[in-house]
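ok, trying the design again with the full structure, not the truncated one.
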């Protein structure tokens, strides 16, 4: 049963009641709710009865929970959505950005009530924003995805709060940004980074930063991977040079992951910071001002790039903005041979795919160095084996089983068919090597490599049961008992590699002793 009351407060030692009545009732989930009513008691009683009736109908399944919000305006929903973002400790800038994008799309769609929100109208508006209008270029696919991501965040929250019955945008998908890239970043080379630091150190003051301060800003960014907002939050107390190893601490309020991050510093950066921090006052930002909030970091870098003669946009259309210093940091980790898992942790990415695909840049010259390390022939000790394929020498005499002293296994026949009898159009021709099994196939899985039988050097059609196995770049053959390059402690490595590659159909192991031939 709903109840109404007027709260009281103390004034000059007396108990005073407020003018407005309040309603206390249990909603359809059984939770106790308190909502404001009116100054008129009768109107408040009618509202309490309405709320209680709606809760009973929702419990009975006669009314949707979203019916409670049918009379609320869109601004009231957006205000509640904003409060929920603040409750989750989302940064002020991110909250403002999400709400601005949501309001722009809703205004262009002319949506005033939630019932008017349609996925078709959102898709149409985004297509119009991407379209070129005369000389003015439309938004990119990446920007379109940002707008769609913001409005879908709103509709998902509305569904979770049961303000709407179902998500009207659930069928809208993100666009492929690879076909419409407009601001790809690049990593600075070692020569460009050295020239940039030297030019900034000797440069004049710009936007309130001295040349040495700008140099240290670029150096710390390229050696730690910190973002502009994280660098702006650093104080002398954030850097611990006396620890082993030296570290820099980023507070959770400014960290990208919204948690406290501690990153190691290199010894070279430690020596640079030790000299530079000597004249910095305590408990004050190392780079003071609102330069990160108003995105002046890119202007600082662009100024010094121009002074150094380094192109801001290269021939491939890639940009060297301030965020490119993070690309430089991760790319240098890859050039130094750091594992992908370590690079992901240092970059503080949620997935290694983002680290490898987006932030690691390997140019053509580095790819050329990689392929130059490959030998023309693999270091196999068996003569006649090149690049993992077995090649027969034309002058090699045929060695019959009776000449080797090995016991010949009896041939297996299938049913009434003899070895010489074959069905017409048989897709599995028999191999004349003497090791016949089901349908006269060779029972040695690795006997037929590269479509050639080692027994009789006869070309065959297809690999059939013969498989090629690589173990660290080396081939192994059961027929010849040659496992060159396979570790002696694990002679089954070739078999396991073939199983992982999914190439084995038959896995019988011959009853021979595995010996590594030198």
């Amino acid at each position: 049963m709903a109840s109404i009351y007027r709260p009281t407060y103390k004034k000059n030692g007396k108990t005073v009641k407020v003018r407005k009545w309040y309603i206390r009732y249990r909603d359809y989930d059984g939770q106790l709710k308190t909502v404001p009513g009116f100054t008129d008691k009768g109107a408040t009683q009618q509202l309490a009865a309405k709320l209680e009736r709606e809760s009973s109908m929702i419990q009975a399944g006669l009314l949707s929970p979203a019916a409670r919000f049918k009379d609320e305006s869109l601004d009231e929903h957006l205000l509640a959505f904003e409060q929920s973002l603040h409750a989750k400790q989302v940064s002020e800038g991110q909250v403002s950005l999400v709400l601005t994008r949501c309001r722009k799309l809703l205004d262009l769609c002319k949506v005033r009530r939630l019932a008017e929100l349609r996925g078709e109208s959102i898709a149409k508006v985004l297509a119009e924003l991407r379209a070129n209008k005369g000389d003015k270029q439309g938004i990119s696919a990446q920007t379109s995805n940002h707008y769609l991501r913001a409005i879908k965040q709103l509709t998902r929250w509305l569904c979770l709060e049961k303000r709407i019955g179902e998500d009207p945008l659930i069928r809208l998908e993100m666009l492929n940004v690879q076909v419409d890239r407009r601001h790809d970043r690049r990593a600075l080379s070692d020569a460009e980074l050295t020239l940039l630091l030297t030019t900034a150190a000797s440069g004049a003051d710009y936007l309130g930063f001295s040349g040495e301060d700008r140099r240290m800003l670029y150096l710390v960014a390229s050696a730690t991977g910190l973002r502009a907002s994280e660098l702006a939050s650093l104080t002398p107390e954030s850097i611990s040079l006396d620890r082993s190893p030296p570290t820099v601490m980023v507070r959770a309020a400014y960290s990208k992951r919204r948690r406290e991050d501690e990153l190691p510093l290199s010894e070279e950066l430690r020596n640079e910071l030790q000299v530079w921090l000597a004249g910095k006052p305590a408990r004050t930002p190392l780079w003071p001002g609102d330069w990160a909030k108003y995105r002046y970091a890119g202007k600082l870098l662009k100024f010094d790039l121009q002074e150094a003669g380094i192109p801001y946009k290269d021939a491939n259309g890639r940009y060297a903005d301030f965020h490119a210093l993070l690309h430089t940091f991760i790319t240098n980790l890859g050039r130094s041979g750091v594992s992908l898992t370590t690079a992901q942790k240092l970059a503080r990415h949620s997935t290694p795919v983002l680290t490898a695909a987006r932030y690691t840049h390997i140019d053509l010259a580095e790819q050329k160095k990689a392929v130059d390390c490959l030998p023309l022939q693999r270091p196999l000790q068996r003569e006649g084996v090149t690049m993992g394929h077995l090649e027969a020498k034309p002058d090699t005499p045929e060695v019959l089983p009776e000449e080797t002293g090995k016991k010949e296994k009896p041939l297996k026949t299938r049913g009434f068919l003899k070895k010489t009898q074959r069905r017409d159009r048989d897709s599995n021709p028999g191999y004349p090597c003497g090791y016949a099994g089901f349908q006269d196939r060779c029972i040695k899985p690795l006997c037929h490599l590269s479509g050639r039988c080692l027994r009789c050097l006869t070309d065959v059609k297809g690999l059939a049961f013969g498989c090629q196995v690589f173990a660290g770049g080396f081939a192994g053959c059961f027929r010849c008992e040659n496992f060159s390059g396979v570790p002696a402690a694990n002679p089954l490595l070739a078999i396991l590699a073939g199983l992982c590659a999914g190439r084995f159909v038959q896995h019988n192991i011959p009853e021979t002793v595995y010996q590594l031939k030198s």
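Keeping the full-length input from now on. The first strand starts at residue 3 and ends at 5.
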